[in-house]
Amino acid sequence: MTAATACLAVLLAAGSAFAADGAGSAGGLLARLPFGARVLALGGAQGALPDSPGSLLVNPAAAGAVGPGAVEAGLDQGVEDVRYEGLAAAGDILPWFSGGIALQTLGAGTIETYDYVGTRYTADLESDRLVALAAAARTGPLCAGASLKYVSSTLLGTYKSSAMLGDLGARLRLRLSPPDWYDEDTAQVENPNWLVLSFAAANVGQRFDYGGASDASPLVWRSGALVEQALSRRARLLLSFAADVPRATAQPEGRTGVEVVWPVSTVAVAVRVGVRMARDGGVFSGGLGLAIRGISVDYAYLGKLGPFDATHHMSLGFNLGAFRGSAAKTEAGLAAVPVQSTIDGRKEPAVATPRSEPAVSTPTEPAVATPRSEPAVATPRKEPAVSTATEPAVSTPPPAAVKEPAADKPLEEAPNF
Amino acid sequence: MNVKRIAAVCLLVLGAGTSLADSWSPVASSPTPRKYAAGTSPWGATLYVVGGLTGTTYLITNEVYDAVADVWTSMASMSVTRSGLVVAAIGGTIYAVSGTRGEAGLADNEAYDPGCNCWVARRAMLGPRRFAAGAVVGGKLYVTGGVVSGTILNTVEAYDPLTNQWTSKALMPTPRFLHSAVAVGGRIYCIGGITALIGGVSNTNVKIEYVGAVEVYDPATNTWTAMAPMPTPRGGAGAASPGNGMIYVAGGIAKGTSTPACERFNPQANRWDARAPFNLPGLPAGPGRVGLVVAAPPSGTVLYAVGGESATLASYDWGGNWATSGTVYGVTERYDRDPGSMVASLSVSPAHLAVGLTGSLYLDVTNSGDATVSGITGEAEVVAGAGAASISAGPFAATWFTGSLTPGATGRFIWSIATSSAGQVWFSATASGLDAEWGLPVTDSAWNDRPLTCAYPARLVSSVTLSPLPLVPGGQLTVSLTVTNEGGGTVFSASARVVVSPAGSPVSVFACVPSSQLGTMAMLSGTVIINPMSSTTFTWTVSVTGTGYALFTCNTKGTDPLFGTVTTTGYRSTMPSAPAGPGTRQGDTAALVTWLPNPSYENVSAYQVYRSASPGVTSSPALLVGTTSNTWFDDTGLVNGTRYYYVVTAMNGDGTGPMSAEVSVMPAKIPDAPGEVRVACMGTNPLAINPDRGEIIQFLVNVPAGTGTVRITVYTLAGELVREVVHAALPPGKWILDWDGRNSKGRPVASGGYLGVVDLPDGTRKIRKLAVLK
Question: Strands, E, within B251-406: which ranges?
């Protein structure tokens, strides 16, 4: 955790270097809002979160941690009747390269004012749109990404402003040692534990101008750390931490979340809790997730924020990698075995087979045998085309290995979150 | 020094001689040397000492001391070996609670029945602790503070033996352990202890913070109150109250070394004083003892200090391990309180006596002893000093608010005096009483150690008049300054100066009277004498050259030989100046216009308010909307949405002054229903404001009745706090409250939507959307 501490220290030092203008002094609010029920249930601790296409809005390097492909749609209730929705998709384009796209909208309802003789005036308060394109490249445990955002805003239904913003981010994934289990027979690591660190400079770019004085872009320094811990061979625990420093306040906002996933047969159930600590108080959150055959439904509840009521958030997601795994499993008709690590959606250790199922423990593929130093990355037994993204030596297995895996190597994956 | 003064001094010496000193004396030593034991003396002359630590051995044995026979005997052992415990008696039972036998802390509770000489387990505390302190009030035992592991506690638990239940009470403000708790007057006083560990990352570098803080707990209200801190911050002391309402704290460890200091706290007077330090028999004063037991039998005159350690080193580590090293004793000492005594002091009011003045002579008496002094009487006499006898005082019948003084209390005798001629005088006074406990006479005397001079400083008062008024261009004006000496001293070398302002005033001074003091703008004199209760008038003749107004400021200065320079200043203006600081506040079809009052010397009789619907208001009679003697004007019957402009003038007997600066206001429609809130934008856009142009958002609030306050807070659409705009207790009615579009750092917020949260006194909350567009 020393690296995480250092990362936070750098972040805070960078934040304190700003001349803080105070809350509300930056434009482009939509570019700072979290995305998706899973993330919000974790208190918004999104910086290093895997398997979440919406994370590319926080750190473009997250596009490289989604896997073969995933789509996430979110419907979020803000304070009062503020609503914002989002749609994000990301996936691998090349073994070392991933891309993503995200759309986000915000509607703030109707404003009502009166003049001094009592005449009533109404208008749409604010309507914002955001489009983001992200690209990420991986080498070894490091993934770096960049994204370009176009943010447009309409105030009072008439006054418009737009700006181009850019994000730069990096993500470092480290396997914690020793692993929980090492199968001497299969030379595979099962349920390894991971540490992921992330850092991003978000929303660098143009100022927002509605025709008068312009406002600074909502620049945010973000850092995150994530620990994935295998609780058993079937359950895993995810601890996510994030610290954001908006330029406007130069005050760090801490976010922490915990997710526990239990695969049950072909279904995975997740329970999440989180907390966001900011200058004006803390907000507790919680949520549930349900995933089956690559399709996930998530719900998040955010507690009272200051004087505002609690809010509810829903997300619907589809994970291509998990969908393939589930399909194979169903065809094989075997009992489910949890994904062993989905830390960045690549599922490389998921093929590890319990000793109780010797039919799966077939070390008959020396070409993909895993070196002991990095077994978790190098054992693409179920998803070779996907899971060897960081190991070029095994990145091009015969197509048949993908097409017909269930005949003699049944896949035992649970859906991802 | 005359005979009476000598007699007064002798009386003072004799009074001091009646005071007996408090003292410590050895009695039979406890058979078992022990430290960090606990004890109580709830009935008779019997002292129970329970548990403790000797060397490295935690004790389970207990002993009882018979003060009458001066003999120690053993009593039944507890079932739990421990030190650092709390012992207290409720009814006929002694309870031993908490403590340690080397671990983090104990929650055990045992009850001792002297009848069967046996211990019975009772319900354990809610949580373990050691080195806590406890006291009994109302048949319940209150255990405060302590330490468990490395955590210093401020929690409080109360034990009710009738229900055999523990309950949590209000937290003690200062976490601490090794402190003392003593019950006096139905309240529990927690004193001293150790409250924090400062610095150091290793066990050896931990610095111990001893405190002298005194906090008193009232079980009736379950509240804590801070009182005067103990002069010697320390921990591990013993404390008890021998029934005289005072608390005695003895021994303990301060700055790492055990101390013999004994200090007394008077809860009524909230005051500490030092008492005789205890000492080991045969040893010089200095080493003191820590972890001793101090208890007071209910007989009310003595304390006992048992055991403890003469320690030269104290340590505490992050694991919560407290240790002292030294010699552990079983020595027992008895403290005898001193009897009542009095300290008297004398004062006279006013401090400067003046001829013909009526004043007061005060004799303040403080009971500095330990016993109540009753039947106190006071006598005073006046002795003529140098010069003529000057004071006609008497009859010296004193006014005395009470006839007795408890320890530490102060009373006052009051005599009326009157002066008849100048000179010097001495006073002496004596207070006498009887120690209610010891039966000894107590007395003390006081006198003024320097003769009081019967005199009074000169005091000048100015009065300026102008005649004739109003000013007539080309005419003359006489400025008369009358200076009166209302004091007792004569003023010599009086001089006066007049200054005319503002610049460009239509007057000029060309002469003054008397002619020997001619000057242009000033008059100086080395000969004017102003006797007490007499006046002198200075006059100036002024030529009027134009129209306008002028202010005359007349300064006078003289010398009182006894008290130095005396001065006075008088003002007078021909017409008032323009009212300053005009302002407005919106209303619903109404506006409130306010301004600052003019200086009193302008003799303003009324203010006139002029209004126009367009800028450039003049003081035309057609625009006059009101005349008032107040500094505000409530203009009603206005049209909402129309901007009105106002100016104010002041008038006095000389005429009407110039206009104030112009101010404007636009009345607004405020909701008629209580609790309703509307938003209005004061700018060019009815839906949004631009703070860069000074535009503001106004909350039009009909404040309902309620017990709360009105609070308006602005947030971003993401729920981030931008600024608290208003937080005030406003009476019910129509109000307009502003937000200038700036955040908590005073900077204009960005263009966009915002949320205004309005909390009302009746507990309701309204949220309104706001827009900023720059």
Answer: 253-254, 257-258, 262-266, 271-275, 293-295, 302-316, 322-336, 342-349, 358-367, 373-384, 391-393, 399-400
